[in-house]
């Protein structure tokens, strides 16, 4: 089922009349042309007519004027999918399936069902989402894309699954028989293995138990079964390595110069190395009540309780007699449970004494620095007062004299006093530097005045010694320097 029509640039100029059989009038035909964008491509179009929704595949082909190649119009070809039995039959034959059903939004549009099947379209729609593996119908749902565009069309293919179901049942029965046979063989094999290897396995287990009971390292006696002999040899090598490690740890524990102890969670001494025995004055179990050990234990118990809760303690200072030891306490975990606490100490008596001497020296240095600061503060006040008096009298003398030479001499006196006051301030600045309170006071001043002051101070001294003082200043007289003047 299909229909055709022609259009020019004004509208529809011809149709074959078949569109009216599907409820599509002229205005609907005109509306269909707007849904086709490019030529020679198929488009999926849904049109609502008086006879219901129609699902169409629409394509247009340009009509050209042979001489000029001008597009005179378009030829439209529409295929109606609704109840298109011929199309469904072709899809069924090409897909090599029993039947096909075309649905749009889960509503059947067309199918190849003839009516004599044991199932209906409703059964196909109902079973398309089933997860049953042994269903009699195998239904596959395939989404349809038209011109690379996703549509609401889906093609359901129906295949009789009876042969597959029969094959699966036969396979299941064969697997069941195989499992039963394997179980019987396994039981027979188990009986044979028990009779064959029970003695060798018992020998191997006896060897492993002897290693667990810590009776000392023993060599494996060998086995007639190659696999068991290999296992026994491997265990022998492993036990030998473990014994060597135990011996190394035992030697490390016994010959360590630092005191090492192992305590239980309840605060009971389990093991102690010779270095700890020496420090705690313990020669045998009776001497665990020695006052030195008892005093040490009383101070260590609170830390043992914390370690028993799972905490790792480091840097704990607990004295033994006149010596100070720094202890590290670490819980011993076995399968997530705490089975003991290992305590290791280090003699830090010398370090503590050095810290005391360092603190004493620091306090003495602080006292000395404070005394120097107090002295400087006092001397500052005692010296500033007469210097300020000299500067004041020099200023009064300068205002009272008329001769230029006398004014210059008074300037020398005044600048010398100011310089002496600045030197005093520098001495005080050292104290401020030590206290982190020193501040540089920057301000602009004349470079020529500074040179003139230096010349007035040192020229008389040089003349008295017969030395010629020459100062070369090539800078402009108005040059100023921005820094601390002293």
Structure, described:
This protein is an alpha+beta fold and 486 residues long. The protein folds into five domains: 2-80, Beta-Lactamase (2-Layer Sandwich), CATH 3.30.450; 85-160, LuxQ periplasmic domain, C-terminal subdomain (Anthopleurin-A), CATH 2.20.20; 161-255, no CATH class; 256-347, PAS domain (Beta-Lactamase, 2-Layer Sandwich), CATH 3.30.450.20; 440-486, no CATH class. It has helices at 26-33, 85-95, 121-127, 162-212, 226-255, 274-280, 291-308, 349-400, 404-435, 447-464; strands at residues 2-7, 12-15, 43-49, 52-64, 71-80, 99-104, 107-111, 137-146, 149-160, 260-263, 269-272, 313-320, 323-334, 337-347, 443-446, 480-483. The strands form four sheets. The chain has a five-stranded antiparallel β-sheet with strand order 2-1-5-4-3, covered by helices on one side. The chain has a five-stranded antiparallel β-sheet with strand order 11-10-14-13-12, with helices on both faces. A hairpin with a 6-residue loop joins β4 (52-64) and β5. The longest helix has 52 residues, at 349-400. The protein is flat, with a radius of gyration of 56 Å. The model has no long low-confidence stretch (mean pLDDT 82).
